[in-house]
Amino acid sequence: MIKILFVCHGNICRSTMAESVMTYMAAQHGLSNLIQAASAATSQEEIGSPPHPGTVRKLREVGIPVIPHRAVQMTRKDYEKYDYIIGMDQRNICNMQRITGGDPEGKFYKLLEFADSDRDIADPWYTGNFDKTYEDIVEGCNAFIDKVSELTV
């Protein structure tokens, strides 16, 4: 089982969208028994909050089930629990490093690294553009699925 933790600032927009997209894509590719996704925040600001209405709207629009979720904060123990800890932007990566005390096993990635890009996934909390966030998340998740598929062949 490959365990992935998607991380963003508040765990209500990008990381929850990525968790739902990855869970859906894994099922579509017959990889549900191999990939397990979860999500968390680097901040405490939204702890207990449901996914942002913009995230819910976008996922419903494209027919992807929204994973039932309440925002949680990433902990140091998550480093041991997950194989991949995937931040949405460079600031998330810095905060993930702070929370865990470092990344000695090389588990930290930005999502679009899997698509050979150093781009950040823009935060729709500020941009209001959930469509662009969704497109970038799909690009990163597709690239991750391709990587996993290559490893399991």
What can you see in these coordinates?
Helices cover 43% and strands 14% of the residues. It is an alpha/beta fold and 153 residues long. It has one domain (8-152): Rossmann fold, CATH 3.40.50. It has a four-stranded parallel sheet. The longest helix is centred in the C-terminal third of the chain and has 23 residues, at 130-152. It is globular and about 40 Å long. The protein starts with a strand and ends with a helix. 42% of the residues are buried. The mean pLDDT is 96.
Q: What does the radius of gyration come to?
A: 14 Å
Q: How many β-strand stretches? A: 4
CATH topology: Rossmann fold
- Weakly predicted, low-confidence segments: none
| Main pleated-sheet profile | 4 strands, parallel
Helix content: 40-55%
The CATH C-level name is: Alpha Beta
Shape: globular
CATH architecture: 3-Layer(aba) Sandwich
Number of separate structural domains: 1
Helices and strands, in order, run as EHEHHEHEHH
Strand order of the largest sheet: 2-1-3-4
Classification by helices and strands: alpha/beta
Oligomeric form of this entry? single chain
Instruction: Let me know the CATH homologous superfamily.
Output: Response regulator
Mean pLDDT: 96
End-to-end CA span? 15 Å
Count of alpha/pi helices? 6
Strand content: 5-15%
